[in-house]
């Protein structure tokens, strides 16, 4: 029988080669120089073994903690592929159990069913999610950030004020990282009938492309009604977050910090991705123009990485998921109070993505390019209109904040350039062509 500590020793020596092949690994564009175990918790000491492992992954410019579940039973040791062993995690949450400092807990008043198998969903994601029956989804955060994860903190706060646009948080797993209590997992209600916004939007784009001579409002799969409802849902979540956790008026220092952060990110990404360099002057100018936004700007807790893949359409309406913020951004930035227009900008970027991803790798086709642009414009307008209808007084109509919205959209596109460079280089043209378009459109009103 394998000793759990021998297993860990063996796994750790193999991780430098294994990690870069994992979709959720955030440092795929740099070599892994070493991996060392930080904390080992044996969750099941007899065969099949189940060991919770936190390792520190060293790369030339960073050291980051990652969470793993390992077993002696499956290929590559990744226990999240074993549905039976995953069931143990749910049982521990149901029983409010603590194992060697790793705390499994259900939310107060929630009863969690035991004895279910948990299958890992094979999505292109930054974390690993396990689905139990048709009731529960358990997200295991892969890259760990010290402290409570904003995903859990914000969704708990939203649930407390009765927000209708989230899945109910049902439990959590917390451990310790550098002496601080840290969220490593989050259990939520699973919506088995849900379809994500990206799947719906790209189906609509495909419909339009198949009918080359029709306009976006003439084809069966028009998405504008959904985009409008989605805008209302996002504005409602922002209003609920404001109700739950408050908001502030940004002062000149907050705005200056935000402009500087956009410029710093631009410089960092342009150094890493040479394709971005020709756009730097126009981008810098757009970021500086954000200072000219008139009137008071409300700042509050926001989603932070909102896109069509983070919204689910159920029979009851739109839900927002994954309030973790941009997985690549520092935690201080992810938890800071920010303008809700950042989420609006994220979603506007996503309409652009949905419209243009079908053109990636195809020979140039003027007709399709015109249709793509038309689809994006129609749905961006419908989303913004819906948002403006339901926005709180403090946030107001995004269309009246042209400079700011444009700067946030471009900042998001810069983030996407870095993201695509590291994860899907063939998609780099999507954010780059948007940058060309937006900066080419020149000045905006207000
Ligand atoms: N409550 C839920 N009900 C149904 N499906 C969900 C739910 N939460 C997440 N999903 C599915 O799981 C995927 C991954 O969830 P997400 O929170 O975005 O993880 P990640 O942080 O890894 O991006 C989503 O794209 C969605 O398809
Ligand atoms: O969902 P995650 O939290 O893992 O977000 C990361 O991955 C996203 C891709 O899966 C990435 O989103 C970009 O591509 C999407 C289409 O695949 C598109 O809808 C988004 O608008 C675009 O930003 C996201 O940026 C990244 O943080």
UniProtKB/TrEMBL annotation:
Annotated pathway: Glycan biosynthesis; glycogen biosynthesis
GO biological process, alphabetically ordered: glycogen biosynthetic process
Lineage: superkingdom: Bacteria
Keywords: ATP-binding, Carbohydrate metabolism, Glycogen biosynthesis, Glycogen metabolism, Kinase, Nucleotide-binding, Transferase
Molecular function in Gene Ontology: ATP binding; kinase activity
EC id: 2.7.1.175
Catalytic activity: D-maltose + ATP = alpha-maltose 1-phosphate + ADP + H(+)
Keyword Nucleotide-binding attached: yes
Top-tier EC class: transferase
Domain Maltokinase N-terminal cap residue range list: 18-75
Complex formation: Monomer.
Membership in a protein family: Belongs to the aminoglycoside phosphotransferase family.
Record protein name field: Maltokinase
Lineage: Bacteria, Bacillati, Actinomycetota, Actinomycetes, Pseudonocardiales
């Amino acid at each position: 029988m394998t000793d759990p500590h021998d297993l860990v020793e063996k796994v750790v020596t193999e991780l430098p080669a294994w990690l870069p092949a994992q979709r959720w690994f955030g440092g795929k564009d740099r070599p892994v120089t070493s991996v060392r175990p930080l904390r080992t918790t044996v969750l099941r000491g007899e065969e099949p073994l189940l060991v919770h492992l936190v390792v520190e992954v060293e790369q030339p410019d960073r050291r980051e903690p990652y969470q793993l579940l390992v077993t002696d039973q499956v290929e590559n040791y990744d226990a999240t592929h074993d549905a039976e062993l995953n069931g143990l995690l749910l049982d521990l949450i149901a029983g409010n159990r603590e194992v060697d400092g790793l705390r499994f807990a259900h939310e107060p008043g929630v009863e969690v069913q035991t004895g279910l198998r948990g299958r890992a969903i094979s999505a292109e994601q930054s974390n690993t999610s396990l689905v139990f029956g048709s009731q529960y989804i358990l997200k295991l955060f892969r890259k760990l950030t010290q402290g409570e994860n904003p995903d859990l903190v914000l969704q708990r706060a939203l649930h407390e004020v009765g927000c209708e646009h989230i899945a109910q948080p049902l439990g959590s797993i917390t451990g310790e990282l550098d002496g601080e209590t840290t969220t490593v997992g989050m259990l939520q209600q699973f919506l088995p009938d849900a379809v994500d916004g990206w799947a719906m939007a790209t189906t609509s784009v495909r419909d339009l492309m198949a009918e080359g001579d029709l306009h976006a409002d003439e084809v069966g799969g028009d998405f504008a009604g959904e985009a409008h409802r989605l805008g209302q849902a996002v504005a409602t979540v922002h209003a609920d977050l404001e109700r739950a956790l408050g908001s502030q008026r940004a002062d000149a220092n907050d705005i200056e910090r935000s402009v500087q952060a956009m410029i710093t990110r631009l410089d960092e990404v342009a150094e890493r991705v040479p394709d971005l360099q020709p756009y730097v002057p126009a981008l810098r100018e757009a970021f500086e123009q954000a200072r000219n936004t008139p009137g008071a700007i409300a700042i509050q807790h926001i989603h932070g990485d909102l896109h069509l893949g983070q919204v689910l359409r159920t029979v009851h309406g739109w839900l927002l998921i994954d309030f973790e913020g941009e997985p690549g951004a520092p935690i201080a930035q992810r938890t800071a109070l920010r303008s809700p227009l950042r989420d609006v900008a994220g979603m506007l970027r996503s309409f652009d993505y949905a419209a243009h991803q079908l053109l990636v790798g195809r020979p140039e086709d003027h007709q399709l390019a015109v249709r793509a642009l038309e689809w994006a414009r129609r749905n961006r307008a419908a989303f913004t209109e819906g948002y403006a209808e339901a926005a709180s007084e403090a946030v107001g109509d995004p269309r009246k904040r042209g400079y700011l919205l444009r700067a946030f959209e471009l900042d998001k596109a810069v983030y996407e350039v870095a993201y695509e460079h590291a994860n899907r280089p063939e998609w780099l043209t999507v954010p780059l062509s948007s940058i060309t378009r937006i900066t080419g459109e020149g000045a905006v009103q207000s």
